[in-house]
Amino acid sequence: MAEKVRLGFVPLVDCAIPVVARSMGFAEQENIDLELVREMSWAAIRDKLSYGVYEAAHLLAGIPIAARLGLGGVPVQHIVVPMALGRGGNAITVSTRLYQRMLEADPAAMHGPRGLSARALKKVIDEDRVAGRPVMSFATVFPFSSHNYELRYWMAAAGIDPDKDVNIGVIAPPRMFDSLRNGWVDGYCVGEPWNQRAVFHGDGVIVALKEDIWPRSPEKVLGVREDWVNSNPDTASALVRALVRAAEWADQPKNRAELAQMLSAEANVGAPFEVLKASLSGRPVLRPGEAPTEVPDRHVFYRYTATFPWLSQGSWVGTQMKRWGQVPADADLNAVVRQVYRPDLYRIAVRDLDVAVPKHDWRVEGVNNADDRAFVGPDSFLDNSIFDPETVS
Amino acid sequence: MLLGCRGVGDTLVRLEEYNILVIDENPDRAAIVERGLVESGYTRVARIGTSHNLVERIQALAPDIIIIDLENPDRDTLEQMFQVSRAIARPIAMFVDQSDASMIQEAISAGVSAYVVDGLRQDRIRPIVDMAISRFNVFDQLRRERDEAQAKLNERKLIERAKGILMKEKGLSEEDSYALLRKNAMKQNRKIYEIAQSVITAFQLEF
């Protein structure tokens, strides 16, 4: 008898891993009857996982850490992370109007590295301030999302104070492009296909990709309740194996067109095939009507240890929570990360598979040295900073 | 005891003093919840659908309790707003008081979530959330009945169409057409409307 596992997901390209695990039979091979439920809100997924409606969930990397700390007016929940679900495909999209203003304000910045395009935004903000215009509004998908941290990182590196110089609000992913089109926000950071979709409709321009900010920033993870793992260790392992195999399948260029087809279904992502294909093929269109840009690592599901729950990535999320005042500066977040991110569960699950597993659970991030690059992928922060998790608490 | 009042210690707290906000994309369900609350003596109930200026509206209404369907994407927006806004009191998820596990389970299965201004006592929240839960369940029941009625109507239409096809293509009488559908349904252990659907599909394929 197959073990039933109910998994909640949000319609984004990185729900590919659970969708493939079900559709391509990887879950079945592990004797798991995987039931997938599409959700439109992170709060709903978190609550349904916490109270046992789901056994597993597609979660933002920061949610299990925030849940362990009881942040955001929500009671403490013990959710653990036995694996990561790839690197996502986030981007920062601005309205075509704001893009024109950025281009006029600082053409050099807009033609330089995309990671530094916020320098042009800084000039627009300064112009608005002088003219006495209201501050602009940006959106991310959740307070504890890498989107929030990436958007803030990109802004802060250009001298913008994200808490004072702009408003940053939260909008659920599938509603983002409508909000931009209706002029409710001037820009946003969200996962694909919701950037590409705005470009295809002529409503937005992508000014920075996740890989322009920090390619290794943790994105979605598999969240399961700690008590469920403890009472169902074999099922948890089987689930991880099925998802790792699905990630491997989804990562192969030859499968990407089929994957785009699969994801375009209304029960999965529910976005046009062409939009999904552009992004998944590593040839996204950044500006309406222009030729695609070659970004081979646009979506990484498996290579570069993209399914391994690196403690150093969790630790980086912790430092961003502190940086933006979501937790007190003296909180020992590395201790929390050790309870939440569980590479030990990953190692047990894949020990009999041909999966390249790192020697250590921690690493110094941002070094980007050549020996490491083939294994963990490009690793530079946009400001070339180095993140050593041992130097933070 | 006065109607609409509840004794708490030595003081009487009037139920209508709570500002309750119902946020729901479904106006019919919101109306049912609102009516239930008003009929129980809570007079200060407001409701809003999906709104891009949620922050301003909530600031203006200053709710003590927000009832919102569990799956509403606006919850993500609300939770961030509660975290950063200095203009409104910080509500907390009702699940904070976990001593009441049965209420949490009932709320989750009915699809109700609530945010409550910190400090409001659980015994004051409970009747409000209970009302929302029962009204969500009533709404669900009504919707199910309507869907079933609609499905029955569709089944009847399929059978009528299949009969029409059999009468025209096979020269059968209406009675014999129906008998043929029924016989096949019994033989294959399927519903009559399923056989009717097969008949329609089969004839569509030929043309």
Structural description of this entry:
The complex is a heterodimer of chains A (393) and B (207). Chain A has 393 residues and is an alpha/beta fold. Chain A has 2 domains: 3-87 and 217-264 and 301-391, D-Maltodextrin-Binding Protein, domain 2; 90-213, D-Maltodextrin-Binding Protein, domain 2 (3-Layer(aba) Sandwich). Chain A is built from 19 helices and 10 strands. A 5-stranded mixed β-sheet of chain A has the order 2-1-3-10-4, sandwiched between helices. With 207 residues, chain B is an alpha/beta fold. Chain B folds into 2 domains: 5-144, 3-Layer(aba) Sandwich (D-Maltodextrin-Binding Protein, domain 2), CATH 3.40.190; 148-206, Winged helix-like DNA-binding domain superfamily/Winged helix DNA-binding domain (Arc Repressor Mutant, subunit A). Helix content of chain B is 58%, strand content 14%. Chain B contains 7 helices and 7 strands. Chain B has helices spanning 27-39, 54-61, 74-84, 101-110, 122-170, 174-188, 192-206, and strands at 5-8, 11-14, 20-23, 45-48, 65-69, 91-93, 112-117. In chain B, helix 1 (27-39) links the parallel strand 3 (20-23) and strand 4. In chain B, helix 1 packs across helix 5, helix 5 crosses helix 7 (192-206) and helix 6 crosses helix 7. The longest helix of chain B is centred in the last third of the chain and has 49 residues, at 122-170. Residues 1-11 of chain B have low confidence and may be disordered. The interface between A and B is medium-sized, with 29 and 29 residues.
